[in-house]
Structures are given as C-alpha cells and as structure tokens.
C-alpha cells in the first residue's frame, strides 16, 4: 500500500475506488465495499467489458494492508479532454445499445443485464461527441 502513489497523481475518490492518473491511464484501487468480494468485482469487470468495450478494464495488480485487506487495482484508458455527458445523451446512447430506460434516472435494462449509476459524472463525452462509460454498476438478470 505504501507504493500506491507510484501509480500516478491522485485523482477523485468515491465510495469504492481511489483513482490515480499516469499519462493515458487511470488506475482504480478498489476497496471491495460495493462488490463485497474479488470474485464479484471481477464478474462486474467482465460484464462492463462486454457491454462497454471502449472503456474496458484490466486487472493490473493487488495492494492492501498486510494481513488485513486486499484491494485489486484496475487499469482503464484515460479519456482526455472529456466532459460529463448530459443525461438525455446517456439515455440515447443506452437505447442505441439495446437498453430500455427504467424509472430511476441512470438505470437501464436489456433483459440480460441491468446497468445503473449512469449519470453525467460516470459517463464522459469527448471533443468528437463520442460517449464513454467509465463507471457503472451492473448485474446479470
């Protein structure tokens, strides 16, 4: 854990990830609070990579506190010069992927998967208007 700052410059942190930026990569140190186990996290990563291959995750390494915790480090391409995507554009993007919007804002289903937390801070749009889902909650139906 004492070497985690070698990953890059610290970025924003959330409930489950601390982020570090280095060149074209963002590293996410996951504390497993949302997933509960490494296996569930890796299953979520697999689903993310199937649905959103443009922002695929790779398992990079593990860190933690000796004898107490283990935290996977995920690696993802950094989307440069991007801004949060308006919700209506997220709705349109998810419809194009075959997902139906549910009543809760940022929640979608296609029968196989339910994806949620797709709100502007988790979905970025670059200068060309391309949309990238960088963080999502996903479950298999």
Mean pLDDT value:
93
Specify the number of helices: 2
Number of strands: 12
What percentage of residues falls in helices of 4 or more residues?
10-25%
Proportion of residues in extended strands = 35-45%
Shape: globular
Order of helices and strands: EEEHEEEHEEEEEE
Structural class: alpha+beta
Quaternary state of the chains: single chain
Distance between the termini: 36 Å
Strand order within the widest beta sheet:
1-2-3-5-4
> In this structure, how is the largest beta sheet organized?
5 strands, antiparallel
Uncertain spans, ≥5 residues at pLDDT below 50?
none
Radius of gyration: 15 Å
Describe the structure.
By secondary structure, the protein is an alpha+beta fold. The strands form three sheets. A five-stranded antiparallel beta sheet has the order 1-2-3-5-4, covered by helices on one side. A four-stranded antiparallel beta sheet has the order 7-8-9-12, covered by helices on one side. A three-stranded antiparallel beta sheet has the order 6-10-11, with no helix packed on it. The chain is globular and about 45 Å long.
